[in-house]
Amino acid sequence: MEDSASLDVSKESYSCEPFVVGTYSQPPNHDCHVMMQGCTVPGEACYFTEDGAQCLPVGSSVCGGRCEYANDCPEGTACVGEPGYCMGLCNRDQPCANQTTCRGFGDVEALGYCPMSCSLFEQDCPLGMGCFLVNGRQECAPKLSPSFKENQACEAANRCKLGLICHQLDVQRCLKACHIDDEAHGCDAGTCTPLENLDGLGVCLQEAD
Fold first, then answer.
1. d(C-alpha 209, C-alpha 139), whole Å
2. Which one, of 70, 111, 67, lies nearest residue 89 by Cα?
3. Is pLDDT of 21 > 80?
């Protein structure tokens, strides 16, 4: 059993409570609305599916739990990723309650989901996901394949190998993550250059010839 004294209790716990301001109209190709619901059959709820939002029987998974199908999750959540996890809903591109940023999906106006927060150095995300720097925040995202090595060009945060940050130089490149105040997470080569407004988190940059 892990020593309770070594547990990280400062990390924000994940919540599926909706982080949404305002109401939304129901798109014409959807049978219901994942936030406003509208299902009439007892035991059913509205879920995102490949064919639009549909009323389906509610599954038995929990907030943050594993899911294979959309309706494995509780009402008012979405199954995100492969393998999937039940995620809370939010306003696209707005801050979430757990210090991440709402990531858009689907075609329901401004709705998105709140990703889990994490550590680039600890890589403490669930199976099938990795910790990446997305919009200036460390959050879990599905790992993409192929994943790019250090100094290779990248078009998305989760295109890089774990422990690398997709950062704009001449082009966006995968660069090693580092921290200017933590020798354990320094640079094997180059200099740890802090990123703006990220409390010492930076990338390893090689000196120009």
1. 35
2. 111
3. no
DSSP string, 26-46: PPTT-SSBTTTB---STTEEE
pTM of the full predicted structure?
A: 0.74
pLDDT exceeds 70 at position 17: yes
Farthest CA pair distance, the chain: 69
Residue whose token pair is 């680039």: 120
Handedness of CA 71, 72, 78, 83 (dihedral sign): negative
Q: How many residues does the chain have?
A: 209
Cα 168 from Cα 153, distance rounded (Å): 9
Q: Which residue is associated with the tokens 């889990």?
A: 116
- 159 vs 166: CA distance, rounded Å: 8
